[in-house]
Structures are given as C-alpha cells and as structure tokens.
Predict the structure.
Amino acid sequence: MASKKDKILEASLELFTKRGFTATTTKEIALKSGVAEGLIFYYFKDKNGLLNYLIREFSFIGSLQNEIKALSMMEPYPALIKFGQLYANFLSHNKSFLTFIWSPEIVRNTDVSKDIVDFINTMNEQVSSFLIRASLCSVEKKTVETAASVFLSTILTHVLVEERKAEKMPIGNNDYIEEVAMFLLKGMQIV
C-alpha cells in the first residue's frame, strides 16, 4: 500500500503532466491523492517544493543511488551495459515523468532546467568513467564525452521509437545496448 506521501507524488505527477504545473492546484492534488491539503505543505512546504522533490527523486540519477556503488565495483564493460539497461528500464517505466520534465512550461523553469542539466551531466560523467575504464587505449576527453552522450541519447531514442512502433523493434533493448556499447568502444579505439 502506497504511503500518503507517495500518493501525493503520484497524483501531482499525473496532474502536472495532464494540466501543467501552474494550472494544477494543491487542492486538486489533495483531492486526487485522497489526502488533506495540509499534508502537501507538511511534506513539501509548497507546490514548488513538491516540484523540486519530484525532479530529484524521479530522475534517473535519483533512482540510481543504490546501484552506483555496485556499478563502480563491476568490470567496466558489464557496468556500462548494466547502466544502459537501468536507464532503458527507467525510460520505459517513467514516460509520464519524461513528458512532464520536457513540457514547455518546465523547460522554461530555469531552476528545474538547471537541475535537469546537472542530472544529464552526472549521467554523462558516469558513462564516461565506464568508457575510459573499458577503453584499450588512451582516448581524448572530448571523444569520451561525445561517446557517452551518444550512448545515452541513442538509448533514449531507441526506447521512445520502440513505444511508437506497432511491432517490436528488430533488436531488443538489452541487445541494442550491447551493440551500441561495443560500437562506441571500437570507434574510440580507432580515433
């Protein structure tokens, strides 16, 4: 059974996605979540506090905190694959969150946009560290950063395109992630 706080988070994310952050009131969130409006203020201070909590807690990096240490202890190539699989799973299961954070209203919110850019940079740094460790030769920092960005963006695109297609993609997420990782590592060796 979901806690009252979780119910508030689920309801707010649904309402923010459907109606927009500004158009959604705390009263509507309370009604949708089945809690007293005062609980929203108790847990989050105000609607902006609720927004900030959603951004931090529902982000991929926020959801990955428990796995980061385990990933850093793994061999680099399996860690890269596992990171990619976790990212693809996150994308598949959190489409409403993605819709919300990329909505025009939230993109224009400079505080939230700064947090999102920080999360993306952290993801790039994590993937870069796996790529550097897995590389068989010395590679320029710019090349590694580009490869990390390509790795993340191609997984995002693959998951989003797969959802739009009537039939499944010819290659599943796990095989796709392995193919992309190997392609990037081989490409980095050539440079």
Summary: DSSP finds twelve helices and no strands in the chain. The CA atoms of residues 8 and 126 lie 31 Å apart. Residues 58-190 form a domain with the Tetracycline Repressor; domain 2 fold (CATH 1.10.357).
